[in-house]
Amino acid sequence: xxxxxxxxxxxxxxxxxxxxxxxxxxxxxxxxxxxxxxxxxxxxxxxxxxxxxxxxxxxxxxxxxxxxxxxxxxxxxxxxxxxxxxxxxxxxxxxxxxxxxxxxxxxxxxxxxxxxxxxxxxxxxxxxxxxxxxxxxxxxxxxxxxxxxxxxxxxxxxxxxxxxxxxxxxxxxxxxxxxxxxxxxxxxxxxxxxxxxxxxxxxxxxxxxxxxxxxxxxxxxxxxxxxxxxxxxxxxxxxxxxxxxxxxxxxxxxxxxxxx
Length: 260
Prior knowledge:
Order of helices and strands: HHHHHHHHHHH
Number of helices: 11
CATH architecture of the domain at 67-203 and 238-258: Orthogonal Bundle
Shape: globular
Oligomer: single chain
CATH class of the domain at 67-203 and 238-258: Mainly Alpha
CATH superfamily of the domain at 67-203 and 238-258: MetI-like
Radius of gyration: 22 Å
Structural class: mainly alpha
Strand content: under 5%
Number of strands: 0
């Protein structure tokens, strides 16, 4: 038991050092780019980080981050609710799964910029445009993950649980759900990352508040340092979400794979 805990801790520390090394490598390449092309093309990393601190210290800058986070999570949670529900229903029906395949292909093929234009016509420049764009862009991924999880589960385990007269609800939570989540989670994690990219794009074109609006202001002012600062904020938030939310959830839902 102690050996297993130490091994898990060392693996996590090694993973953390690997991530940190990757971040340092990015900053090193960034510094090389600054020295090669100048501050107008690529500002110095320390200049961008200083501008980041200034932006976060401003009430409006912190408000922009909260607004973007609210819109991204609102669209993502709506997509999760609808995508998982309909994906599970379609996965248990051969007819529905076949009917849904063309819709998934079409939905995945439409670029987010097209949804932004439609959302602008429907919702204007309010919260509805970025939230809807995140919802419609991430919904197909989550739906496909849930559907695939149901279709690819090991039916022999279901039959074995039935033979032991395990109740239906218990059979779903303890036998089927872990298998479904193992397929759903990668799509869900990808959709969460995509939601941040899409919401910033939608804000850039449609909103006067949020990180996307901050990027639009930096573009108008030809402020490369502020542009890079906003980009660092978005990437940093994604890394925090991955480390504090996605990885613990992944370890929990995939624990059954490593159970002895």
